[in-house]
């Protein structure tokens, strides 16, 4: 008896989708809940799992076709289908077992699979393999790194043994759950190409200095995060001293080099009509990372979709600086975290959003969704690009809780450890360009949000206060907002309330 595979519910205002990719073909065996295909809508990407185990007998909707809700996609029949994967899993590794006599009689084949990539991420690109076929690996040792639209994902070894075959090469795009490589679990020693390694023993047997000099072997790959960081900072390989195994450059090494006086900013690339041959020979073309491509696409979508407008104001930071100076030591001693400016800005924005809820809302088709919570996005610059982790329910948090959460998310963002869940669901965003010295700028919306606050450099300027010219630490504030939902009056009111709360922090305590 055949089982029908149909288009699932796509969302409240979504009635159709496009078949993007089939991960199975007719005749393939499928397990229950195994991903069959992926659908794309104008809002989200939807994965379609198998409703039952069996064999895929018919694909009704081919890739590229537009289908409605509950439309028939495919048919699954009874039967075992093609036994390719089970056979590979159970095949004993007799051919390469010559060096495993001391450890075990037989090496078991273990598949290295693409891990879960996130709620709305269905595929990744293989960025770098750190091991090659024949290399000995320890359990949980990093084998390769994958790049998605949002984060980099490290793939550890599921068992100790020898890497047998690499199925997905560098640059290949792989779906979630795909096979990356085959590992001979229990096999001992890398008998294949031992001369290419600086040391013939496994990593675990050399806890000391693997590379006596600062030189790097030709076969050693730098960490992917380090490569990205060097590309972003405009640093060449010889400008960075590697501290990893065999002289491998790690991300921390790049950050040290960036902070050195010789560090140079990354050169911005722009398309040009014609380039003289002499100039072309001195240029380097580097493919954009998936993260950078996504940032570019989303920023352009924000400009094309929203009726974006920016309003400005300035705030006297004297009161906050005095309050922070007076209580920072006591605050740190009690809460084990530093008192910065971000908690004041988050609190001030939460306070203002209650009065002007339009800035905390979003447009969905012809509807406006008002949110009775504040999930505050905090933009963080990383070597790979800008990421926006979310402080959830910021309106319910104390100053100390906000500072701790922002510090934690910022560190995870710079280390490339943020999960998809930590970067989704924000309702409003704060971007602090002042840490880089920006005096004034117009931030771009983070869709589908309707507002983003830009903080800038604190600079002393002469101000007239009570008829007297005094020097005050001033900061420009910029609110970019979607004029389709937020009126000019609401935007100005929001920014004025933020200014008032920052210039007199007692208003936050009194809810004024």
TrEMBL record:
Domain Lipoyl-binding: 2-77, 109-184
Composition skew (Low complexity), residue ranges: 193-207, 260-278
Coiled coil: none
Ranges where the record places region Disordered: 80-103, 193-247, 260-283
EC identifiers of the protein: 2.3.1.61
Catalytic reaction(s) noted: N(6)-[(R)-dihydrolipoyl]-L-lysyl-[protein] + succinyl-CoA = N(6)-[(R)-S(8)-succinyldihydrolipoyl]-L-lysyl-[protein] + CoA
GO biological process: L-lysine catabolic process to acetyl-CoA via saccharopine; tricarboxylic acid cycle
Biased composition (Basic and acidic residues): 87-97
Secretion signal span: none
Pfam families: 2-oxoacid_dh, Biotin_lipoyl, E3_binding
GO cellular component labels: cytosol; oxoglutarate dehydrogenase complex
Quaternary structure annotation from Swiss-Prot or TrEMBL: Forms a 24-polypeptide structural core with octahedral symmetry. Part of the 2-oxoglutarate dehydrogenase (OGDH) complex composed of E1 (2-oxoglutarate dehydrogenase), E2 (dihydrolipoamide succinyltransferase) and E3 (dihydrolipoamide dehydrogenase); the complex contains multiple copies of the three enzymatic components (E1, E2 and E3).
Protein name per UniProt: Dihydrolipoyllysine-residue succinyltransferase component of 2-oxoglutarate dehydrogenase complex
């Amino acid at each position: 008896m055949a089982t029908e595979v149909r288009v699932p519910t796509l969302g409240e205002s979504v009635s159709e989708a496009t078949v993007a990719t089939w991960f199975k073909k007719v005749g393939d065996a499928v397990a229950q809940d195994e991903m069959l295909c992926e659908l794309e809508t104008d809002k989200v990407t939807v994965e379609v799992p198998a409703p039952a185990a069996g064999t895929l007998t018919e694909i009704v909707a081919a890739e590229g076709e537009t289908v409605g809700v509950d439309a028939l996609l495919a048919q699954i029949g009874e039967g075992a289908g093609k036994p390719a994967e089970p056979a590979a899993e159970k095949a004993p590794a007799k051919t390469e077992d010559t060096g495993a006599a001391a450890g075990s009689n037989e090496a078991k084949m273990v598949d290295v699979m693409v891990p879960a990539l996130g709620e709305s991420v269905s595929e990744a690109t293989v960025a770098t393999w750190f091991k090659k076929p024949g290399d000995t690996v320890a359990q949980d040792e990093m084998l390769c790194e994958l790049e998605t639209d949002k984060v980099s994902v490290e793939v550890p070894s599921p068992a100790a043994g020898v890497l047998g075959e690499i199925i997905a090469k560098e640059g290949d795009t792989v779906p979630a759950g795909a096979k990356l490589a085959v590992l001979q679990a229990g096999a001992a020693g890398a008998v294949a190409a031992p001369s290419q390694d600086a040391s013939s023993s496994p990593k675990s047997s050399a806890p000391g200095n693997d590379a006596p000099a600062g030189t790097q072997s030709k076969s050693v790959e730098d960490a992917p995060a380090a490569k990205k960081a060097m590309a972003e900072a405009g640093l060449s390989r010889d400008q960075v001293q590697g501290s990893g195994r065999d002289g491998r450059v790690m991300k921390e090494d790049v950050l040290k080099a960036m902070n050195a006086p010789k560090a140079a900013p990354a050169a911005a690339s722009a398309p040009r009509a014609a380039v003289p041959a002499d100039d072309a020979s001195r240029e380097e073309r580097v493919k954009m990372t998936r993260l950078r491509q996504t940032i570019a696409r989303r920023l352009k979508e924000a400009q094309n979709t929203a009726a974006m407008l920016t309003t400005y104001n300035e705030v006297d930071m004297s009161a906050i600086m005095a309050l922070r100076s007076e209580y920072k030591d006591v605050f740190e001693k009690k809460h084990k975290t530093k008192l910065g400016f971000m908690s004041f800005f988050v609190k001030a924005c939460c306070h203002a959003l209650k009065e002007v809820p339009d800035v905390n809302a979003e447009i969905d088709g012809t509807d406006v969704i008002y949110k009775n919570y504040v999930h505050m996005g905090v933009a963080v610059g990383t070597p790979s690009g800008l990421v926006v982790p979310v402080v959830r329910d910021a309106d319910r948090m104390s100053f100390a809780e906000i500072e701790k959460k922002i510090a934690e998310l910022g560190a995870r963002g710079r280390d490339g450890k943020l999960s998809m869940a930590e970067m989704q669901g924000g309702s409003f965003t704060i971007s602090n360009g002042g840490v880089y010295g920006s005096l004034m700028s117009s931030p771009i919306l983070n869709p589908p949000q309707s507002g983003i606050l830009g903080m800038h450099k604190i600079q002393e300027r002469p101000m007239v206060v009570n008829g007297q010219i005094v020097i005050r630490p001033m900061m420009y504030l910029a609110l970019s907002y979607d004029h389709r939902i937020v009126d000019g009056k609401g935007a100005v009111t929001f920014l004025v309330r933020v200014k008032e709360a920052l210039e007199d922090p007692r208003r936050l305590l009194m809810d004024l």
